[in-house]
Amino acid sequence: xxxxxxxxxxxxxxxxxxxxxxxxxxxxxxxxxxxxxxxxxxxxxxxxxxxxxxxxxxxxxxxxxxxxxxxxxxxxxxxxxxxxxxxxxxxxxxxxxxxxxxxxxxxxxxxxxxxxxxxxxxxxxxxxxxxxxxxxxxxxxxxxxxxxxxxxxxxxxxxxxxxxxxx
Length: 167
Fold this sequence. Notes:
By secondary structure, this protein is an alpha/beta fold. It has a single domain (about 25-155), classed as Double Stranded RNA Binding Domain, CATH 3.30.160. About 35% of the residues lie in helices and about 35% in strands. The chain has helices at about 1-15, 40-50, 130-155; strands at about 30-35, 60, 70-85, 90-105, 110-125. A five-stranded mixed beta sheet has the order 2-1-3-4-5, covered by helices on one side. A hairpin with a 4-residue loop joins strand 4 (about 90-105) and strand 5 (about 110-125). The radius of gyration is 22 Å and the shape is flat.
């Protein structure tokens, strides 16, 4: 029994010894942030809930109070047919989420250059499982929203200010 415990602890000790740490949310380099997003933006909701517990960055109610403004310019959820059966019935859908955003300082400087990305998931479909497939679609869209929010936060953690041309 002691030998099994010892053998189980060897990988843990090696991982701890090499500096391995679980991924965690680091704070943003802004003291305050305003999220400017279209009404009903699910990615903005995810961002707000992720950043609500952040002790280093305060979410503000107006852009004038914020040191930085995250502006989500596009958020589009889409479902399109990916494959059809021989009988012309849908057998697979492609779910996609398109996001465009930019982060500006209060004085208008660009802190994070405009970025556009798209997340895709494929989903099998069966008419006889309509309720289950509808729930699966909602779950996949929620997962894409969370992934997009996490990607935006990671990008904001390492802002690269725009440098002007030489004089």
